[in-house]
Amino acid sequence: MFKHIMVPVDLHMPPAVKKAINVAADFAKNHGSRVTLVHVTDQQVKGAHTVGSSGDELAELASKVAESSGARVEGLPIYSVDVGSEIDSILTRTAKELEVDLIVVATHMPGILDYVFSSHASHLVLHSEISVFVVR
C-alpha cells in the first residue's frame, strides 16, 4: 500500500515525534515500505551527513528504528538558513522530490496560537498532494 514514508523529525524528540516514528515504522514493517526520517537543520550538510552532532543523532536514530522495527530506515538532513521560516516549504518540496506516498507527522494539541499560526502538520495537510497521517 505505502512504498515510501517520510517522517519529519525534531531531534529534541517530543513524545509526539517518538509516536509518529513508531507509527511510520509499523506501517513500513506491515507494508514492506521504507522510511526516511527528515531533519531540517541550520547545521551545514555535506553529502547525506550533517556536519555536527545532529547528523550523528539522526544516523543513530535511523539505525535504532531500523533495528527495533525491522523496517528499512534512513535519515536525511536538510540544511536551511532559517529553519523557522523555511521548514514548511522544505518539507512539502522534499516529500515530492523523494516521491513518498505517505507523510507521517507529529503535531501538538491545538492552542490559542494555532488560530494565528498553523502547525507544520496543518501546513502539510493543506498544501501537500501526498497523503498525510497526523499523530498526536
What does it look like?
- There is one protein chain.
- Helix content is about 45%, strand content about 25%.
- About 30% of the residues are buried.
- The protein is built from four helices and seven strands.
- By secondary structure, it is α/β, with parallel strands linked by helices.
- The strands form two sheets. A five-stranded parallel sheet has the order 5-2-1-6-7, sandwiched between helices. Strands 3-4 form a two-stranded antiparallel ribbon.
The coarse overall form would be globular
Strand order of the largest sheet: 5-2-1-6-7
Report mean pLDDT, rounded to a whole number.
Answer: 86
Strand content: 25-35%
Topology, number of strands = 7
Radius of gyration using CA atoms only: 14 Å
Task: Describe the largest sheet.
Answer: 5 strands, parallel
What structural category arises from helix and sheet content? alpha/beta
Distance between the termini: 23 Å
How many helices in DSSP terms? Answer: 4
Unreliable spans: none
- Percent of residues in helices: 40-55%
Query: H/E order of the elements?
Result: EHEEEHEHEHE
